[in-house]
Amino acid sequence: MIKKHKFCPKCGKTITKGIFCKNCSEPDFKFKDINIKICNSCNSYYHRNKWVKFRDINTVIKKVCADSIKAKVKIKKLSRIIHNKVSGHKAGIQTDLILEIIHKKVDYDIPSRLEVTLCNKCSLKYGQFFDSILQLRNCNDEILNFTRNEVKKHNKKGVFINKEVQLDKYSIKDIDLYLTNQSYAKTLADKIKKNFGGIIKKNAQHFSLNKQTTKVLYRLNILLTLPNYNKNDVIKHDNQLYKIISVGDRIKVENLKTKHKTSLMHNESYDILKPVIFQVIKRYPEYEVLDPTTYYQARLMNPTLKLEINQKIKVIIDGGEAWMV
Fold first, then answer.
1. N or C: which end of the chain has fewer CB within 10 A?
2. Residue 172 in contact with residue 141, Cβ under 8 Å?
């Protein structure tokens, strides 16, 4: 028995079911333009005027089609090749997709438009926008890491550091951080000052004009000059030596001689004594230490019973006296 083939009466293509092929079939349902907008950077899609997270692009297509097609239809999943290609698109890509849709057991090819872009938050993170510059002076690794971690906590709110500029490429002592949120930049500067001390100066700089509202737009420059001393440094004040316990709005210190704890005002005129490595050379009648490089000897003013001869310890030198720190 010879099997007869069916042909589309419009184009002559071989078909297995229905009257027309998929290309020639006219949908018997109404639908609007299907426009799909996704952000592959954070896996979100634009739906009903807001960005929504998604796990699979096929779910996105179903959601968007549900708003555009006024009929009960079944949407076939994208092929694996097309699925992987779409998922790998970078922002700025626009492409046409043919969606295979089944309605009343009839297959239709419906055109759609896919746009890969950046959502509002990712456009701040990966774009060049900034509206404030936090200028840190006398910065160090601890302060910079603290600042970065604080900003990272607010990434979900659209706060990012878009650029870091070191005034000296070999040092982070003086660094400018370009931030995407002016209000948070002020909060951040206050928080750094609270934890590490410093002096804040602010300056608003006109950079643009909102054409819709005619409002003048400003960028905020915040200069935070941090103190030259840090935690565990030893400073000299009124002929007394103090070890810094913590730095904030005031300096919490401990008197090396009396062990009394107190707080001092910030003052750039404090003498800062940096620790050096000395070697214990004598225990009786009093402890003495020696700089093994210069052979300078000094009396150790605050020894402990556990010290041994030739043991290396960290001290600061004030006159002819050495103090363990």
1. N
2. yes
